[in-house]
């Protein structure tokens, strides 16, 4: 069977046609950059370090994968930062949000175990088992756990999107970007953010419900009540 010959696209022959092509390409580039620009503008003055982040009741740590049931190195760095903020008295409660959609995969419990081994009392940790993506985690933090203000913890390539989405979800947010080795995972994460920015902008505009919403949970409120009295 003879395959059809491949025909290269031809540039417009007229000056007007070429001008319209250039304008279309430029418009496409501008539209492609708008979501990323929105993220940078929204999060620009809300990024902090562990030394200067405002004292806030709640820190939110987003899941970042498990290796053999334990937090991946990237997730461990996030949890280390949360534990540091707790020890320094900058946060009182840590909300860990991640994926538990399968019986053999439980990010929140792995995150809880890691934090307790690094000095955060179990009673100061709250688990969100339906944080399937960043938007879901932000909406659930607000609607399910009643979080109005939080410090968000993630790698630098993700933190701006997290802050922008939580702001859109009604959570007054500050972001702490965790340093990371620039390995293959880092480059993958940075590249992924280019495409994730578009979805983030759509989420902020249309505000869809999370994949799973469910009833209001008092975990954060109860953990903060424990923070007001000495731990036993």
From TrEMBL:
Residues of the DUF218 domain: 57-174
Pfam families named in the record: DUF218
Cleavable signal peptide: none
InterPro entries: Cell_Envelope_Assoc, DUF218
Keyword tags: Membrane, Transmembrane, Transmembrane helix
Superkingdom of this protein's organism: Bacteria
Residues annotated as transmembrane: 21-41
Annotated protein name in UniProt: ElyC/SanA/YdcF family protein
């Amino acid at each position: 069977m003879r395959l059809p010959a491949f025909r290269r696209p031809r540039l417009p022959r007229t000056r007007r046609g070429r001008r319209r092509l250039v304008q279309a390409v430029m418009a496409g580039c501008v539209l492609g950059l708008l979501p990323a620009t929105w993220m940078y503008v929204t999060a620009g003055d809300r990024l902090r370090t562990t030394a200067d982040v405002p004292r806030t009741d709640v820190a939110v740590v987003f899941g970042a994968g498990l290796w053999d049931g334990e937090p991946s190195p990237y997730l461990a760095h996030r949890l280390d930062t949360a534990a540091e903020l707790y020890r320094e008295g900058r946060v009182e409660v840590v909300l860990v949000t991640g994926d538990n959609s399968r019986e053999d995969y439980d990010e929140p419990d792995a995150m809880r175990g890691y934090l307790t081994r690094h000095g955060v009392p179990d009673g100061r940790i709250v688990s969100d088992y339906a944080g399937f993506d960043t938007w879901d985690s932000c909406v659930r933090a607000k609607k399910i756990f009643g979080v109005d203000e939080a410090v968000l913890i993630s790698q630098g390539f993700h933190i701006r999107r997290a802050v922008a989405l939580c702001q859109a979800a009604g959570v007054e947010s500050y972001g702490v970007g965790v340093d990371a080795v620039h390995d293959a995972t880092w480059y993958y994460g940075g590249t992924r953010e280019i495409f994730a920015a578009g979805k983030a902008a759509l989420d902020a505009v249309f505000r869809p419900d999370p994949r799973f919403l469910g009833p209001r949970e008092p975990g954060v409120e109860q953990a903060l009540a424990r923070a007001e009295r000495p731990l036993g």
